[in-house]
Design brief:
This protein is an alpha/beta fold and 255 residues long. It contains seven helices and eight strands; from the N terminus they run E-E-E-E-H-H-H-E-E-H-E-H-H-E-H. Helix content is 38%, strand content 17%. The chain has a six-stranded mixed sheet with strand order 1-8-7-4-6-5.
């Protein structure tokens, strides 16, 4: 297992997830959208497709999970379902449909492959911030995103249970893109704040598992969005370090 920095040693008591996380320049399927000469181009990243030791997230739509199935999904999910081999299915597997019944819910499922082994996917439905009125606050948005991330991290542990279970996770900016609504300009910092809040609510067994995981990557598909997420993570790490120093000073003064 990876040896993480000292700042995350007390993670089980709610220390930030920032020391575990890495922002990477590819999607959960190992692709990147780059803009060159005024045109968008999708390139294959060296990280490659998820392997049998990697769990990855699907930004699922609730209507597709509950009603129309993978066949009618578009966007990032369309590519994911083709990769999983379920794009032509009329319905998701029953455990997924039973678990993902509203925004914020997540469910892990293993998809066996013809050549043996399985692909490991966590379907998560993020909150849709489009059309929210001005009374809907950033703190409320952070709370809803934090609940979704907490559920994803708990499902990651569920996926890894048992000998030889996957120990790597490719996360996504939940509710990114068009679903960010008026929070689109700050989705990077909102994502980090939500992840920090989610970490504080994790059960101890999940926090302990994350410390032993091999990889926790936040996958950024669009090259233009990468700097904002990298900066947000650096700020989160700086805040975590400052908080730790304050706690140490308080402990010393109280000794």
């Amino acid at each position: 297992a990876t040896k993480w920095p000292h700042q995350v040693a007390p993670f089980m008591s709610g220390a930030p997830i920032s020391g575990l996380l890495k922002v990477v320049d590819y999607s959960v399927l190992g692709q990147q959208l780059v803009r060159k000469d005024g045109k968008n181009r999708v390139i294959e990243h060296g990280a490659g497709r998820p392997d049998a030791d990697t769990v990855f997230c699907d930004p699922a739509g609730l209507c597709f999970i509950q009603d129309t199935g993978p066949r009618h999904a578009g966007g990032a999910s369309d590519e994911i379902y083709r990769f999983l081999g379920i794009k032509n299915d009329d319905a998701f597997e029953e455990p997924v449909r039973k678990a993902v019944t509203e925004e914020g819910r997540a469910k892990y499922h293993a998809y066996p492959q013809e050549g043996g082994g399985a692909f490991h996917c966590i379907h998560v439905v993020g909150p849709d911030f489009r059309g929210r009125d001005d009374a809907f606050t950033r703190d409320e948005a952070k709370g809803q995103l934090a609940e979704a991330y907490k559920n994803v991290l708990c499902e990651f542990r569920a996926a890894a249970c048992g000998e030889g279970g996957p120990k790597k996770l490719r996360l996504i900016p939940i509710s990114g893109g068009i679903f960010a609504g008026r929070f689109k300009g700050e989705i990077a910092t909102l994502t980090m704040d939500a992840l920090m809040a989610a970490a504080e609510e994790l059960p101890p067994e999940v926090s302990g598992f994350l410390l032993e995981s091999e990889q926790l990557n936040l996958c950024i598909y669009e090259q233009d969005e990468l700097p904002a997420f990298q900066a947000a993570l650096e700020d989160a790490r700086a805040d975590a370090s400052a908080s730790e120093e304050e706690e140490e000073e308080e402990e010393e003064s109280g000794a």
